[in-house]
Amino acid sequence: MELIYLDHAATSPMHPEVIKEMTKAFETIFGNPSSIHTAGRQARKVLDDARTTLARAIGAKDNEIIFTSGGTEADNSAIFGVSQALQSKGKHIITTQIEHHAVLHACEKLEKDGFEVTYLPVDESGRISIDTFKNALREDTILVTIMYGNNEVGTIQPIAEIGEILKDHQAIFHTDAVQAFGIERLNVEELKVDLLSVSSHKLNGPKGIGFLYQRTGTPLNATFLGGSQEKKRRAGTENVPAAVGFAKAVEIAQAEMESKRESYQNFRGLFLSILDEENIVYHVNGNRDNSLQHVLNISFKGMDVESFLVNLDMNNVYASSGSACTAGSIDPSHVLVAMFGSGAEELRNSIRFSFGLGLTEELVIEAAKRTAKIVQRLTN
């Protein structure tokens, strides 16, 4: 039975071209980018070229890109860096109840340190209300951190609208775009964000690298101390081969973005059509009008998520019940709790399928058929 990987929102396989570029870099580029000799300058050139590629992908300047070890570090650096830099101007932070734990746990830590955090609620589609946001905004708000697109249900937040509201406010605006980058066209000028977090492994690049966009002039204290790398904003010798792979993955993602979105929309339709043909009772979680097309979160009536996942795995369909970071936990998804309430049946019967590299219509149809058979067997 062929393996069908439908968990690309958790992590994605590396693109073959990325592997080639990284292998070449491992073989030929070994210098420290901070060294002034020829080997160091060669490494610096390659790193700078990668930085340019990443910056252009979001409409930023080269010097506004800070390499990190991934999305979690980028989120943490944004939240702790701004809170430390601006605490004399206020200690109020606004976020949402459905953020990734890299944001939520950072905010919880700041609450213990004396900051006040407002966690905005969402509706049943996972989207915040602009009016609720406006009511939460205060003179002493120093940071707003709201994700672009949710990693569990795919719902996209009104980031550009929030950016417009904040353009004359002291608050720094950060968005976690880890799940959206490579899927959505992102432009930091249009979004009016000051900070933006990205991770490589979500778009067929290597694990262990990401970046934080920092708009010029945005106050941000360094959270890593050591050398003067990344213009003294993030200490530590840069991972040059990973940066090369990251840049290649971004080049490919930018070139194929529209075709991939069309494919993912088609995959969603095919998957759901098979469920309809098999008379499966389900509903799609998330916002159909504002959603990341590669994420499909489905609630199946009468199912239990743990036995469901075990049976999917036994049938070589790899999916998820929520955030990859909590996959080993029996706690319900905090995203679904925020959307439906603590006693909702969706907490116990929802599965996330997510699309990406290597999938075909035939594989998606086959995965849907296997899923339907499991539902029929476990609910009859």
UniProtKB/TrEMBL annotation:
Against Gene3D superfamilies, the record matches this protein to: 1.10.260.50, Aspartate Aminotransferase, domain 1, Type I PLP-dependent aspartate aminotransferase-like (Major domain)
User: Signal peptide location in the record?
Assistant: none
Q: Which reaction does it catalyse?
A: (sulfur carrier)-H + L-cysteine = (sulfur carrier)-SH + L-alanine
Where the record annotates domain Aminotransferase class V, the positions are 4-362
Q: Give the molecular function GO annotations.
A: cysteine desulfurase activity; iron-sulfur cluster binding; metal ion binding
Keyword Metal-binding, does the record have it?
yes
Q: Where are the transmembrane segments?
A: none
What InterPro entries would the database entry show? Aminotrans_V_dom (IPR000192), Aminotrans_V_PyrdxlP_BS (IPR020578), Cysteine_dSase (IPR016454), PyrdxlP-dep_Trfase (IPR015424), PyrdxlP-dep_Trfase_major (IPR015421), PyrdxlP-dep_Trfase_small (IPR015422)
Keyword list, A-Z: Iron, Iron-sulfur, Metal-binding, Pyridoxal phosphate, Transferase
Name what cofactor the protein needs.
Answer: pyridoxal 5'-phosphate
Enzyme nomenclature, EC number: 2.8.1.7
- Please give the family membership noted in the entry: Belongs to the class-V pyridoxal-phosphate-dependent aminotransferase family. NifS/IscS subfamily.
**Family annotation (PANTHER family):** CYSTEINE DESULFURASE, CYSTEINE DESULFURYLASE FAMILY MEMBER
Identification of the protein by name: cysteine desulfurase
